[in-house]
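User: Hi! I have a protein structure encoded as tokens and I'd like to know what sequence might fold into it. I'm fairly new to this, so please keep things simple.
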């Protein structure tokens, strides 16, 4: 495998590999672009099928953070990290001490935070070995509720644009993934009167959401073909692919997962089918927006900036329609323009 020839490499500034025999740490930290500031992006802990899969994931996530932070108007570059392992069985404080030491070797070029499989407590452990951690207790804290808020507002923007409805009462939403963000998203949608259809690997999460929000539970592979208004992918990426794209009945795809399109061409297929796609790194930026207020935290200011996601997405929808191109292309062009202007200052 040639790293520099990988499609996901995309001119990354730095990719670092770390191991620690004593704790079992196997980690990759990817820094995509630091034009706008130090790279900031969470750490994901996942039991990857192969090292190649792990590398591709961290590279795609890192690039996504560059674009996410740019479009959100943050003075942050893009980076991401992964820890290879089972988040349910392989965690120890020592593992995260070792991860903190790994982050510290980068000297502030990269700041980490929570992502899939990582808790605020894990980040606090890593913080004992390095100051380059964000989403800390007592500061901005868990970013999940803000990611969920931004995604909820993004769904409202998409429903308004695509269906002409200001209210979510009676809107049917299929939610794939009920982790921290997925749970909070379900709460927002339920309170707004939406009807929920959900799936997840975790039976306890399914039972909780079914009981609290009157959600209908379906099988993992059944979620794609549900007769709903909105499909909300909130687990891992690439669920919009050759196997799923022909069975979607939803007219809107808007969720908090990263890298939802398996390939760029799938965004074009969605456009051709008349399905409105909310670009993932725009709709799910609420968490990193909240983290951006870490050192001078103000809940009201953070929430107000997260609420701007509604308008940003609406502008992207309108521009994509005007140019007759897919929404992901407009979002990418916007991000690249912001970064280019910063480089030329």
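Assistant: Happy to help. Inverse folding works backwards from shape to sequence: for each of the 345 positions I chose a residue that suits the local structure. Here it is:
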């Amino acid at each position: 495998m040639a790293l520099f020839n990988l499609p996901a490499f995309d001119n990354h500034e730095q990719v670092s590999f770390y191991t620690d025999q004593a704790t079992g740490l196997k980690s990759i930290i990817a820094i995509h672009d630091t034009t706008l500031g130090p790279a900031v992006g969470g750490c994901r802990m996942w039991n990857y099928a192969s090292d190649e899969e792990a590398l591709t994931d961290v590279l795609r996530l890192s690039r996504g953070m560059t674009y996410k932070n740019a479009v959100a108007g943050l003075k942050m570059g893009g980076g991401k990290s992964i820890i290879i392992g089972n988040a349910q069985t392989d965690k120890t404080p020592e593992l995260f001490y070792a991860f903190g030491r790994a982050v510290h070797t980068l000297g502030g070029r990269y700041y980490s935070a929570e992502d899939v499989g990582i808790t605020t407590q894990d980040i606090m452990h890593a913080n004992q070995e390095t100051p380059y951690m964000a989403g800390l207790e007592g500061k901005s804290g868990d970013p999940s509720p803000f990611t969920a808020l931004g995604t909820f507002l993004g769904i409202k923007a998409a429903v308004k644009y695509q269906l002409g409805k200001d209210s979510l009462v009676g809107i049917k939403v299929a939610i794939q993934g009920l982790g921290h963000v997925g749970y909070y998203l379900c709460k927002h949608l339920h309170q707004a009167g939406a009807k929920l259809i959900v799936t997840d690997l975790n039976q306890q999460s399914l039972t909780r959401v079914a009981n609290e929000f009157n959600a209908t539970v379906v099988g993992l592979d059944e979620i794609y073909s549900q007769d709903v208004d909105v499909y909300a992918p909130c687990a891992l990426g690439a669920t919009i692919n050759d196997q799923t794209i022909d069975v979607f009945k939803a007219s809107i795809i808007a969720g908090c997962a990263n890298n939802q399109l398996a390939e760029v061409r799938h965004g074009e297929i969605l456009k051709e089918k008349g399905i409105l796609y909310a670009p993932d790194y725009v709709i799910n930026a609420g968490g990193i927006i909240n983290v951006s207020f870490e050192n001078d935290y103000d809940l009201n200011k953070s929430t107000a900036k997260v609420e701007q996601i509604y308008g940003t997405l609406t502008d992207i929808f309108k521009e994509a329609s005007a140019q007759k191109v897919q929404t992901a292309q407009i979002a990418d062009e916007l991000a690249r323009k912001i970064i280019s202007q910063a480089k030329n200052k």
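A useful reference point when you look it over: The mean pLDDT is 95. Feel free to ask if any position seems puzzling.
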